[in-house]
Design a protein that fits this description.
Elements: H1 10-16, E1 19-25, E2 47-54, H2 57-78, H3 102-115, E3 119-124, H4 128-143, H5 159-181, E4 190-192, E5 206-208, E6 213-215, E7 218-221, E8 226-229, H6 234-249, H7 252-255, H8 260-279, H9 282-290, E9 303-304, H10 306-314, H11 316-325, H12 331-335, E10 344-345, H13 365-368, H14 370-386, H15 393-409, H16 418-432, H17 438-447, H18 456-466, H19 472-479, H20 485-503, E11 515-521, E12 527-541, E13 544-556, E14 562-567, H21 572-585
Bound molecules: zinc ion.
The site of zinc ion has 4 residues, from α6 and α8.
Amino acid sequence: MFDLSKLVNLNYLMLKYSQNKKELNNVIINYHPQNIDNYYQDVLPTKLTIAEFILNDEIKKNIENDLKNIFDKIKSNLFQTKKQVANLENIDIKKKKKYIPQDKIDDLLKQIMKSIPEKAFIIKTDNISMVLTQYYKIKQELGDLNNIDNKLVFKPKTIMYDVLSTVYNIEKDINKANNYAQEKFIKPFKVDLYGQSNRDFLKNAYYDPISNKLVLGSVFNLSTQEVINASNDTDVVIHELGHKLLDNLRPGYIDNRFHFESGAVHEAFGDIMAFLSAASDPNIQKYIQDNKIDLTKTNILSQIAEYFGKTIYTNIKQTKELLNNNPYMLPDELSKIKDERPVRDISESFEYKKYSDLKKEEKEVHLQSKSLSNAFYKAFINFYNDNKDKYSLNEVVDRFYNIFIKGTKISNPATTTIPEFMKSIIIADILFNNSQLTSYLVKSANENKIFQNLNINDILNEINNSRNLKVGDLYSILNKQNNDANKFKEELKEAILKILKNYSLDFDYLSIDDISVSIVPGFNGGINIELTYRYPKSIKLKSKDYPVYGGGIFVFDNKMNLIYSYIEKINEQKVKDMQDYANIIYK
Ligand SMILES: [Zn+2]
């Protein structure tokens, strides 16, 4: 039996029943990251068509009728004696001369109907090089003020502009992050620009580590009757990209999903990246300058996802549905919402509390992320305001972004708390940026109770003490010519195990199989050694055991001096907290 579904050009039918059809001449795009997606492979000569397909009951009926007609034509054609080629605009029946029983056709009809996505953008084009030309134009427009007549361009005007500016923003940020990390650490990933591949229309944007995809969903604004795509909002795009970047640098944070604060750091990471990205946008810089914006109060930089938030917060019913599984705020806070507003505002002060001090309804990662993102934001703004005559906003972004990525690279590889993470950013500033930002970061972290009146000397002492760790055995292994990769790894692990056991009696229980070690590029020609170890206790969920991991990091400069080390001590409370959070999220 031949594949009947191949006879039906579903793309044609979807386009026929699409709305908001835009036919554009001389502007052609064929960009879609999931090229495997059949709906984007069709080709139409000389022009570009973009259309929005939304499957409703009426369209379902229409398509079903069309399909029935097509199949009837095929059937009648099968009994024709004359050799002929039928060109029925959407079928090709040249070689098909077999009898097809009706029940097979009914079956197929059902299958095809099932396979139609609820929402899709249909893009047809014939010229990929034109797409690239267009992409360069958008790059210019976003990157160069001269071309845009003083207009803000962060809110795109067309679907195509959307697609291209999203790709541009992602590309720009990845280049920066790789640069600061001094390592190309970002692995390839997919971007689903409209959430259609997962049928996630009318869903929030998210990063899916399993399919390695940023999904930028869409939301329908009831009051304006507009569909707003998450890819319209650079904040949303960069926030999701932040999850992806952090997951590549610190996969442990998502792997150990019962560790609440690792999740909160993930959310803060995305928001911090989003605001740094906005602050480096020349259009936004000009806007801030021209309008003399006070950056200490709520403003265009501090408001995260202002465009997307408009839709979310205009429609309370839908908001509640959206927030049901992925809440951004407490239920009583939600009930107060009346206006359009950004999803989060990181200029609002927010105090850190230990996990064990949080009430049950406060145990939400986006909410608790705000102590970290606000501390980082305050340090940024205070530094900028104090150094306005010395540095442009761009130069300040450069400094903060740099130590933000470097700090991440020297953070605990297994899990992290907000204070731990903040401290690694400060330590990166001390080690790699002459402590230029340290006093600002320490001050705002103390204000937000991330630290209990910590002072800079405490941190300097900690760094100095960490250099005394006895790592002599590592040198002989690293210096030895060893061509056997497996043997090298074993020797390295044994040396690390010995270091751990010397470090604390708590590690007596550890065996070689309980640890994993990796060597990654460090800074300025040095190396970092990252380690994770298994805790003696695990957590239990539905009679299944989930291991708990701790981590450590050794930072060597290019002369192989140990310039910083950190080893997480066994912490009973961590296991208790993870057990509690596991019970909450898998109740
Ligand atoms: Zn997020």
